[in-house]
Specification:
Length: 111
């Protein structure tokens, strides 16, 4: 099995981040004498993974994507020939699906 050092990163997840305790430096990992870069967040299968378990950047990204979809459908919204029911179905199918993609995995926190 070959590992691409260009595509390989490591992420250190520490639950003590939320408790505001100091975080230990993750150990260095080398592949073919190349040190693997340490990152705080990365995109995996379209989902933003972050070290602090916060989903705010991911939710913000999906709100932006849904806004882009809404903007691209401007002609649909202003079309007088389409019924409100048709427009609602388009909204549910194209906009809400983008906005709520993987929402079941978003973490919920108070504060």
């Amino acid at each position: 099995m070959l590992v691409s050092i260009i595509k390989t990163n490591k992420q250190y997840h520490n639950n003590s981040i939320q408790n505001e305790q100091p975080v230990n430096k993750p150990p260095d990992i080398s592949v073919d004498s190349n040190t693997v870069e340490s990152v705080n967040s990365f995109v995996y299968l379209g989902s933003l993974q972050s070290s602090d378990s916060q989903c705010r950047p991911y939710v913000t990204c999906h709100i932006g994507l849904a806004c882009a979809v809404m903007t691209s459908l401007k002609r649909i919204w202003s079309d007088k020939r389409l019924t409100l029911d048709t427009k609602l179905r388009i909204y549910q199918t194209l906009v809400l699906s983008v906005l709520l993609y993987a929402a079941g995995y978003w973490s919920l926190q108070m504060g």
